[in-house]
Amino acid sequence: MFVWLRVPAPWRSDDFAANALARGVNTMPASAFAVDRSTVEHGVRINLACATSREQLARALKVLARTLQDRPSALFGTI
User: Fold this and answer.
1) Which of 21, 43, 44, 50 sits at 20 to 30 Å (Cα–Cα) from 11?
2) Which Gene3D superfamilies does UniProt cross-reference here (predicted)?
3) CB count, 10 Å around CB of 32?
4) pLDDT tens digit string along 43-55?
C-alpha cells in the first residue's frame, strides 16, 4: 500500500526524498514517475507495506513529519 505526500514549498520532491533518506527513511520522489520533461508535482510516494512492524512505521512517519517542518537548508545549505 502506498500513499502520496505532497511536499510544501520551499521543498522540492527530490530534495525532500534525499533529506528523508539522510534521516533513514526512503521515499520515491515524483520525478521517478515522470514520463516526460513536463513540470512535476512536488511530492513523494511512501510505501506503508515495507515496514516490519507498526513501531517502525510510526517512527518513519514521525521522521517524515519532522522533515516537513524543517527547511531544505538543513541538509543542502542556504537556498
Assistant:
1) 50
2) Aspartate Aminotransferase, domain 1
3) 13
4) 999 998 888 999 9
